[in-house]
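Question:
When you can, review this sequence-structure pair and walk me through the tokens.
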Amino acid sequence: MTTAAPSPRALAHPARDEIRLEAVLHALSDAVRLRIVRELADREAALSCSYFDLPVTKSTTTHHFRVLRESGVVRQTYQGTTKLNALRRDDLDALFPGLLDTVLAAALADSARRALPGSGALTSSASG
């Protein structure tokens, strides 16, 4: 059962038993959303939307947080006028053991690989 939104400031989230693997994988498949999840996991705390310095517009940022919330990856709550985001690690680990840690480790390894000299975008050269 989806958590009801009792007031205009409360946001609906899927209950633990409503979180689906395909929705979580979709949410984690986008580079911006994965960056948000990585930062939430690194900080191990609820962070405001404005904390994140993302290379997208505000409306696109809102979309990314909504996808993460509706998939069950994050929980959003209001503290005054600030919307806080917290990783739903306990729910994700209970439903999909090892998934989040594996994705985060792979993302870290990918970032490290891309940061190495000479690991920039592949270039093609015209042949003969």
User: Anything to note?
Assistant: The chain has one domain: 16-106. Residues 99-115 form the longest helix (17 residues). Residues 111 and 117 are 12 Å apart (CA to CA).
